[in-house]
Amino acid sequence: QVQLVESGGGLVQAGGSLRLSCAASGRAFRSFAMGWFRQAPGKEREFVATISWDGGTTNYADSVKGRFTISRDNAKNTVYLQMNDLKPEDTAVYYCAARTGGLSSTFATGYAYWGQGTQVTVSL
Fold this sequence. Notes:
Elements: E1 4-7, E2 10-13, E3 18-24, E4 33-39, E5 46-51, E6 58-60, E7 68-73, E8 78-83, E9 92-99, E10 113-114, E11 118-123
Parallel strand pairs: 2-11
Antiparallel strand pairs: 1-3, 3-8, 4-5, 4-9, 5-6, 7-8, 9-10, 9-11
């Protein structure tokens, strides 16, 4: 069992930056692959980024590639999402998720544990 708590969301102007954090409870954090997903109003939840248990493999949605960076600190049980050059279309609730087995996945169904989400709003 693992509990995830996101933080770092907020309101930012287009072109600005935010860093989301996801703190995980439990000593098994380093065995989980981690992912970030987002859901905008009226839309389905979509994949944003994922990272393997050791940080050696990362994947990004095409829409955020080159602007967002996922990273993790296993000593702190925390995964991060650095978001640069934010656009209004990035506005959504961002969710952190944990996947057992250590290998990353772009599919939400592959993640067993989810945080409560943090709101990111990008204004013009």
